Amino acid sequence: MKWAIHILIMTFVFTTQLSYSQGKYETIDCPEATELLYSEINQYRSGYGLRKLMNHPEMERKSKEWNEYMVSQYINPKNNFYKHSIYGLDEYHYNSNEIIHCVYFNHKPSDYEMVMALMYGDLVNKDREAIGCWVDSPGHDAVLRLRNAEYFGASVCLFKTDKWWVIYGTVKIR
Questions:
Q1: pLDDT in tens, 156-167
Q2: Half-sphere CA count of 82, side-chain side, radius 13 A
Q3: Distance (Å, rounded) from C-alpha 34 to C-alpha 117?
């Protein structure tokens, strides 16, 4: 049986700084999933009559750096993911609204599965309620639907623990 576990957070610009060392997991960049995420976010926004966002390369780079930082801090599913986000390096926040999501899979997810889990929750197990996603979270959804936003940068990455395939998705919107 395929399934995913979701952890949602939303952050804004913070001033706290924290140094970190490289973690034990190798980050696998997922450019196809990132491109699919751009398309899905713009399609979602168009359903609300909102303008299409333009990709901002610097915001994308900062999103990727943020994902790599989060992976470097990863210990296990219970190690307080939220604290890493709050105390992350200020430079990764890049003066933008930011949404982050972490999803655990019991199998290596496809690009489509990764994006659908980030945006809409666990679509693999339709017989049970989704555990969480950006559009079901009022704060995350508000960021996705910012009326005056023009640019975004996103990154999706994947890594393998001894038990899980874990994805981090980060989107910066301004």
A1: 999 998 888 988
A2: 6
A3: 13
